[in-house]
Amino acid sequence: MxxxxxxxxxxxxxxxxxxxxxxxxxxxxKTTDNKKKxxxxxxxxxxxxxxxxxxxxxxxxxxxxxxxxxxxxxxxxLTEKLCEAFQDKAPxxxxxxxxxxxxxxxxxxxxxxxxxxxxxxxxxxxxxKGNSYTMHNKGIQLAFIDEPTAIHLxxxxxxxxxxKALQLANPQKVSLxxxxxxxxxxxxxxxxxxxxxxxxMPNDLYELFKMACGNEVNMNVTYNAMTEIYxxxxxxxxxxxxxxxxx
Length: 247
Fold this sequence. Notes:
Blueprint: E1 4-6, H1 7-30, H2 41-51, H3 55-71, H4 75-86, H5 93-101, H6 104-122, E2 142-146, H7 147-169, H8 178-192, H9 205-213, H10 216-237
Helix pairs in contact: 1-2, 1-3, 1-6, 1-7, 1-8, 3-5, 3-7, 4-5, 5-6, 7-8, 7-10, 8-9
């Protein structure tokens, strides 16, 4: 049986990955030709300010259920707590997230990471090296899931968030930029596994995934998760998981 993953490291990885995937999706959606554009900080700020109001609803839709996998062994337990909390009133996002996080300390860490990345996003500085992921918030609580399961959830979260943002920026987009998707998955796999001090990156894509995943089990989980979500996107949303050539 594989070891349970650190709850704080996984939770903060999910928050960081969400923001990076959202920002990347917006920027890719604003690209009007087949060439990747290097936007200025001011251009990025303009785009992010135009779409920032969508952040919290999408965060609660996509990230909160993933966080719940870390903190609840059974979905029924979370459902009971939510029904008890909101039986006489409309759901409140803040209270909902508190229940999902389960402990005040994890909730505070998640909110801190959210605020940190939100500020960077509005400044157009989210992808500047060293700016995201506040490691000092890391605690020692173990999650109810193991590393392969956490990685499976991470890959799905990244791609689903990226697609949401991509189509917010340009509803006509029907294909993904694979280079963006690979970069998001690789960098955030390293963060989730605590491998943030890599001195030399391989040039070969297979070797990059091998390094980021750490072992064969995690590689298989990553590939399977990508195949799974790509199939869902093609069937349900008619999204093509290939390099952006038609848009």
